[in-house]
Amino acid sequence: MREKWIRGSRNLAALAAAAAVLAACGGGASSSTTSGASGELDSTAVLRVTASAPTRNLDPHLQTSYGGWGYLTPVFDRLTVVDGEGDLQPGLAESWEFAPDGSYLELKLREGVTFHDGAPFDAAAVAANIQRGKTMEGSTVVAALKNITNVEVVDDHTVRLQLAPGTGVELPGVFSSNVGMMVSPKAIAAGADLRNNPGQAGSGAYVVTAYVPEESVTLARAEGTNWDPEAGKVAGIEFKWVADASTRLNGIKTGATDLSWVSSANEVVEAASLSKSGTFDVTEVPFRNVLGLYMRPQGDLAKPEIRQAVASAIDPAAIGALFSDTCTPNRQLYPAGSWSADESYQYPYQFDLEKAKSLVQAAGGAKVTLTFAAGTNTEKPANVIQSTLSQAGIDAELNPVPNTQNEPRYIAGDFQSMVANSFSPKVDPAETVNYFLNGSYGLANGNAQIKELAAKAANPTLSEEERAPLYNQIWDLTLKEAMFVPICNQTNATVSTTKVVGTEDMPWVNLGIFDVRHVGMTK
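Above: the chain's sequence. Below: its structure in token form.
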């Protein structure tokens, strides 16, 4: 079963009633080879998980990239969540709707939820969290909350978020991320530093018992009643950061790890082969993320014709071959089937080496630097792109950097371009525009028409059908700016022992991250 909870025009009572069946919702795997783990759940088990992205701190409002979210979901409950297909579902907020004039977003909150420190979850707690996110020093969620002008506590379980005119349509989706993770108001009032020790500040099924930044997080099941009956199935969870995909896969093979993910072509193929033995479960999903090339208007890339030449010199088929055809060519920003995607869209810079050469010659040559995360699955694509750019007459220099540095430093403006798979279409396209187009990545390149269309499309009084053509225009104008070249969608494989259950419809796997709060193990 799937329910979409994006538009606020639905009846609140119906939304609340449907929340009771949340546990049955899910899906999203494109292919799955599993042995069908069965048997009695082992509530004493400890789930050992390895992940490709590190966790730099444990404060929801200080996350610098989404790679750290998965470590936090078992500890901090969110106002909304997404299912395995990326569709919005209730969390701590059982339902929500916008005012008829779009002036506020009203949330109906789940009753009977208590933080680990005994504080109740209520409307006042939501207000305290929003205030913290907007004002705390170093907060990384300020931009996500900027359209909330005031928080009105209607009653203990109803809160109204007053909105700047014509804004806020993305908030239900935003609240499914770290932005919607709720911290105990007691911890907030005490000014608790959650970065290394969240203590009792969450309301999830688990608490943190040990933490080594950029290395490991250890969780234990929280004492007391957990509001979510699908969470807390194991006694503890041990997360470890292991950057190398083959090492993560070897951990599963040797029994050192229970659950992990691989997306490098060799490991995806090997995992599929291993699953045939019946010893391992493997579920493959296409990434929602788009592997592509980001560019900034720096140096020769400040010239539109050079960016167009770069875009025209990239061959998705050649990149796909690197991944044994596990990276499906994609020249759009949103995946097919999304309501804001244009099914008839034609990318303006198809692979055309002669056109690229002509543009470069007319510009008198060009030199660019291609940054990529060393040792990741973007290294080989970067080398292929360097080769084809050279054929087009562009002097392309490779710039390998540690995986922990590439995204933060690109956002900071340190790099001219970057090969990455981090373009991640958000639950609501308004958030995608705010973050990738007009925000940190600057893909709109200051285009005034994009800004005008984005303001119209973000109006919460409009339906999806009314917003969709506006976003179709926005995506087209953005890709014509050639600040981002979409190439393909890789495949992500969830690999586990046969004792692990609850992985087939795991949220966020199509983003390259994970939400393991509902995962269990059998005896």
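Residues 464-481 form the longest helix (18 residues).
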